[in-house]
């Protein structure tokens, strides 16, 4: 293990003053919620023939050689598992001896989870696999997943994140892309993406009309009455109700020289605040980049994976908000609600 890796593990081990006694911290003081092994090679899984109590494990492990990348050990015996953190000799070789250890989770505090489809390098996947086997009193879930890779997660808890988009299509593009980002970005904490969509069909039902104008054909919706689409530039103005946003109204004014009756669809102009601490949203006035305001991160309708990833990383604190580059807007969004902090 590199010196910096040993220093990172120091808080987990310094509570042990010696192998024969001294003050010991409890396991709950040592790892933070959702903590996991930094990479698959840092967790070693071994089947052992010794009891899984701390005294037996210290006798078994102290002085024993382990691989240089090993930080944690998941030790199994007769269907039980225990999780241990180790410190090794500071030598530059393939294997080095264990010089200190701490039992993080006893067999009654640890569970082995078999989940062959789980990407064990991904925190959300780990947390979902662990929660499917949640048991009272268990702190550490050791998950064997795809390709028989193994990782653990400590007290798994997903961060709820509202996704505000427009449907149809259903599922909306922003939710699908956010799910893909969460699935591949191994730096992210566990996230529960919760769709809270503006539904065009529901808006039409609440605002009945004989003729509708929608922003674009991409919705693929059928409202049961004549419906035109603004992106096709209908040649003549009709007595319709526009279901759209600020940009749609401006396009309508440009095409036909008048303001239409309009039902608002912009996810950023919703009066009701998100029910979660953080939210991801779309706005078609954003040309590129991410509009970030501590609680809500918004991207444009043509947002790239890079933009959506950056938005999610800002919301979860993975990316430093001080480094966020302001979004480029086609124009300012008017009448945007100022949601209170939660």
Task: Describe the protein's architecture and organization.
The chain starts with a helix and ends in a 13-residue tail after the last strand. The strands form 6 sheets. Strands 1-3-4-5-2 form a 5-stranded mixed β-sheet. Strands 11-9-17-20-19 form a 5-stranded mixed β-sheet, covered by helices on one side. Strands 14-13-15-16 form a 4-stranded parallel β-sheet, with helices on both faces. The protein is an alpha/beta fold and 342 residues long. The chain has helices at residues 3-13, 54-61, 123-131, 173-184, 200-206, 246-256, 305-316, and strands spanning 43-47, 65-67, 72-77, 80-88, 95-105, 110-114, 140-144, 150-154, 159-164, 166-167, 191-195, 198-199, 212-214, 227-229, 241-244, 261-264, 278-282, 286-288, 290-292, 296-299, 328-329.
Primary descriptors:
single chain, about 350 residues, alpha/beta, five-stranded mixed beta sheet, 7 helices, 21 strands, about 20% helix, about 30% strand, elongated, disordered N terminus
